[in-house]
DNA sequence: AAACCGGGGGA
DNA sequence: TCCCCAGGTTT
């Protein structure tokens, strides 16, 4: 079986037309690869266009305010990617004379680029023959070659990389890597792969042995744990107060309202009692305008139960004034917000009580 | 090796 | 509902 020939022939007829394939600008390809980490193509496309329009060069990204970068990234998730991309741009300016390095080995030193992304950029932009092994490649190779090693184990990563390294086209490594990815996205899909019309059907171990659903083998993941957030949308004369999350935690560098996290859900009376000893409310007269039902927000490994309280205070106390950013309520959307908060403000009718008008 | 980090869409 | 997406970093 000439794996590479069959694959490239398939790609010739089925390649997706994607914006980052119509450029040779390594920076654009870099941006696209980071956006596409654990992110579907359809979800990433609009972010790609907005990102390179707002930050058209490595220099412009390096010079950018991190808040502006986060705002463009808002809603895409895995926000460390955005922070690392900007850090990487600075790194390239300081260590590589402003030009992205051209080898996989050097690209691996750039913040936010791991084994897959470095190989992808090296092969797409610079023609280096290194396999770019992503989730699609694990799935395809495990099925066709009948490999049961868990793809998220160390030995599995080595094994699949070695196999891809044997199969890769030495003359067209970039096309080969892109072809594998499209083949996984369009043909050898996770569920309901199109096996009857697959050019590898005659050779595919999983298809021949009716083991499509069993491959690839993945380690088991633990169920998400619950977290309980209480957000205080404090209103005072058309202004509210927000703060950037600085902890090493979810939503790093995004903005949010004053909040309280508890280890368990509060009962209604416990919640009211809590209002009296919040640092950012003490000394203020507080009028409770609305309390939402708990809103469920699911992350990959957490389930957040968020309750939004709309409050009006007679005057902001010193904690609110000193530790938070005072923002006109109508301008809150200029800040990068977690999807949870953004969606609540956009869709929840009770947010009318939060309006700037008195 | 395992945990952590988001959000969305397809089946 | 469950799965998983052009994964990387930290512990």
The CATH class designation of the largest domain is Mainly Alpha
N-to-C SSE series? HHHHHHHHHHHHEEEEHEEEHEH
Number of strands: 8
What separation lies between the terminal Cα atoms?
A: 74 Å
CATH architecture label name of the largest domain? Orthogonal Bundle
Biggest sheet details: 5 strands, mixed
Approximate strand percentage? 5-15%
Number of domains: 2
Secondary-structure-based class equals alpha+beta
Helix content: 40-55%
Number of alpha- plus pi-helical segments: 15
Rg over alpha carbons: 25 Å
Mean pLDDT: 96
CATH evolutionary superfamily of the largest domain: Hypothetical protein, domain 2
Low-confidence stretches: none
List the helices and strands and how they pair.
Layout: H1 3-14, H2 26-35, H3 41-54, H4 58-63, H5 66-73, H6 80-95, H7 104-107, H8 115-126, H9 135-145, H10 154-167, H11 173-187, H12 205-208, E1 225-235, E2 239-244, E3 255-256, E4 259-262, H13 268-275, E5 286-291, E6 295-298, E7 302-313, H14 318-323, E8 325-328, H15 339-347
Parallel strand pairs: 1-7
Antiparallel strand pairs: 1-4, 2-3, 2-8, 5-7, 6-7
Helix pairs in contact: 1-11, 2-3, 2-8, 8-11, 9-11
The structure holds a DNA duplex (11 and 11 nucleotides).
Structure description:
This protein is 42% helix and 14% strand. By secondary structure, the chain is α+β, with helices and mostly antiparallel strands. It folds into two domains: 212 residues, Hypothetical protein, domain 2 (Endonuclease III, domain 1); 130 residues, Nucleoside Triphosphate Pyrophosphohydrolase, CATH 3.90.79. Strands 1, 4, 5, 6 and 7 form a five-stranded mixed beta sheet that branches. A hairpin with a 3-residue loop joins strand 6 and strand 7. Helix 1 crosses helix 11, helix 2 packs antiparallel against helix 8 and helix 9 crosses helix 11. The longest helix has 16 residues. It is elongated, with a radius of gyration of 25 Å. The model has no long low-confidence stretch (mean pLDDT 96). The structure holds a DNA duplex (11 and 11 nucleotides).
């Amino acid at each position: 079986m000439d794996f590479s020939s069959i694959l490239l022939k398939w790609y010739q007829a089925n390649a997706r037309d994607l914006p980052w394939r119509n450029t040779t600008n390594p920076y654009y390809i870099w941006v696209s690869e980071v956006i596409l980490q654990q992110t579907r193509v359809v979800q990433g496309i609009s972010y790609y266009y907005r990102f390179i329009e707002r930050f058209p060069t490595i220099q412009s990204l390096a010079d950018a305010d991190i808040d502006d970068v986060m705002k463009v990234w808002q809603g895409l998730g895995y926000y460390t990617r955005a922070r690392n991309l900007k850090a990487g741009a600075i790194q390239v300016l300081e260590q590589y004379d402003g030009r992205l390095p051209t080898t996989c080995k050097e690209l691996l030193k750039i913040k936010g680029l791991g084994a897959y992304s470095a190989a992808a950029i090296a092969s797409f932009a610079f023609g280096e023959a290194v396999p770019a092994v992503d989730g699609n490649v694990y799935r395809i190779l495990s099925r066709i070659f009948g490999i049961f090693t868990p793809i998220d184990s160390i030995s599995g990563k080595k094994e699949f990389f070695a196999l891809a390294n044997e199969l890769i086209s030495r003359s067209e490594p970039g096309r080969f890597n892109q072809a594998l990815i499209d083949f996984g996205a369009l043909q050898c899909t996770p569920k309901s792969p199109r096996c009857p019309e697959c050019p590898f059907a005659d050779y595919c171990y999983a298809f021949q042995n009716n083991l499509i659903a069993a491959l690839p083998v993945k380690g088991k993941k633990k169920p998400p744990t619950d977290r309980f957030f209480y957000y205080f949308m404090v209103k005072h004369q058309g202004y509210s107060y927000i703060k950037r999350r600085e902890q090493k935690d979810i939503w790093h560098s995004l903005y949010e309202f004053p909040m309280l996290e508890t280890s368990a859900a509060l009962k209604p009376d416990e919640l009211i009692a809590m209002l009296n000893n919040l640092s950012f409310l003490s000394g203020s007269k507080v009028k409770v305008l609305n309390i939402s039902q708990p809103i469920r927000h699911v992350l990959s490994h957490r389930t957040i139960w968020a309750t939004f309280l709309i409050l009006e205070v007679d005057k902001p106390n010193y904690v609110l004034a000193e530790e938070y950013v005072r923002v006109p309520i109508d301008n809150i959307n200029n800040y990068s917000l977690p999807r949870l908060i953004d969606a609540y403000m956009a869709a929840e009718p009770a947010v009318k009580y939060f309006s700037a008008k008195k």
